[in-house]
Amino acid sequence: MEFFAEMRIVMVGKTGVGKSELGNSLLGYKHFQPHALAGSSTSLCKYGTRMLKDGRKVVVVDTPGTFDTRKSDWKTTPEIIRCMELSSPGPHVFLFVVRIGRYTKEEQDAIDSLRAFFGEHILSYVVVVFTCKDVLVHEHMTLDQFIASNTELGTLLSNCNCRYAAISNWDHEIDRNKDVEAIFDLIQCTIQNNEGDYYTLDINDY
Ligand SMILES: Nc1nc2c(ncn2[C@@H]2O[C@H](COP(=O)(O)OP(=O)(O)OP(=O)(O)O)[C@@H](O)[C@H]2O)c(=O)[nH]1
Ligand SMILES: [Mg+2]
Q1: Which residues place a Cβ less than 5 A from the ion ligand 2?
Q2: Which pLDDT tens digit goes with each residue over 53-96?
């Protein structure tokens, strides 16, 4: 596989799906404040960085769960532009975060509004990351069974070429790091498929 020295990642998804915790897992340290600790949700985009042992740089941007991409919502538009600035010159991937056990109409609306706002070409940069893999163990279910239980989820995954991974942010470090490695591999493959290209938003359109 070709080696891309930088991975710029933006995490999106509804509130409470585990974006901030996923960001911490990816960075390998507590940087973003998760829901339970803050008592409230992430309200502003924030970024963190990490250098991997092999010299690759990881940039992770956390976004508010209320990140509403409806064009008419001028309150959140500056936040979207800030998120693009934090991932400048543009993100290599958008991680669309889905909580296992929860894929509802709200989640579908979220991806639809992302497509409407960022354009259809965003799909080439989307990787779905399922959090709460630990829930599967409790429910004696495999990830494939969970995916098969929801037709819309199947549609979402096929729209982004079946690029998906799962993680438990609550796992012990060793297991969690294996999942993080798999997510980084998937991101590298995505960058390779896009020939090193990254997403750009023409802010003059907004
Ligand atoms: N069991 C389990 N809980 C998780 C996992 N990831 C996150 N959580 C919990 O889910 C809750 C929400 O996590 P956050 O990371 O704050 O979610 P968020 O998407 O950043 O939420 P907003 O900032 O409101 O958008 C917290 O209580 C987390 O500890 C996971 O993999 N397994
Ligand atoms: Mg958050």
Answers
A1: 19-20, 42
A2: 999 999 999 998 766 555 555 556 778 888 899 999 999 999 99
What amino acid is encoded at 70 in this protein? R
Q: How far is the CA of 144 from the centre of ligand 1 (A)?
A: 22
Domain 6-205: CATH class, spelled out:
alpha beta
pLDDT tens by residue, 145-197: 999 988 888 888 998 999 999 999 999 999 999 999 999 999 999 999 999 99
Rounded to whole angstroms, the Cα distance separating 121 from 160 reads 10
Please give the distance, rounded to the nearest whole angstrom, from the Cα atom of residue 1 to the centre of ligand 2.
32
Contact 106, 14 (CB under 8 A): yes
Instruction: Please give the distance, rounded to the nearest whole angstrom, from the Cα atom of residue 20 to the centre of ligand 2.
Output: 4
pLDDT given at position 75: 56
Sequential DSSP letters for 130-187: EE-HHHHHHTT--HHHHHHT-HHHHHHHHHTTT-EEE--TTS-HHHHHHHHHHHHHHH
Residue ranges of domains in the chain: 6-205
Query: Which atom of ligand 1 lies closest to the CA of 38?
Result: 16
